[in-house]
Amino acid sequence: MTTRTRPMQATIFSALFLLSAIIMLALGMDAHAYYIPAAALLVEAVLLWKGASLRWFKRLLELNQLTAIILILDLWLGDLLHLPKLTISASMLAANLLLGGPLMGILAIGALASMHFSKTLPGWFQSGRA
């Protein structure tokens, strides 16, 4: 059995996802809805730590970013476009929290940039298949 050496980027991002999950768990003591983003952040930390399921890892990050962008655009332009602003923003906020919330959105910027511009994280996920 061959051992894989975990890259520093994977270790740092896994630790940041785990720290964010702990923060969300602490917030969940006051508002139970924060347990859901904590679970999503924990899933991301485990996927990245193990280097498993690149597709799920990227899709969770991308969907989190997409829901945040739609939420911001709706809050900004909803009245101008005569859209049902409250309905759209509530559903996008719920979807964003389901997909990791604002802390995942902040970490997703760096993680997705690293996935796109660097070969370290994609190589880490690919090394698990070999």
TrEMBL record:
Keywords: Membrane, Transmembrane, Transmembrane helix. It comes from the Bacteria. The chain crosses the membrane at residues 7-27, 33-49, 61-78, 90-113. This is Uncharacterized protein. It comes from Rugamonas fusca.
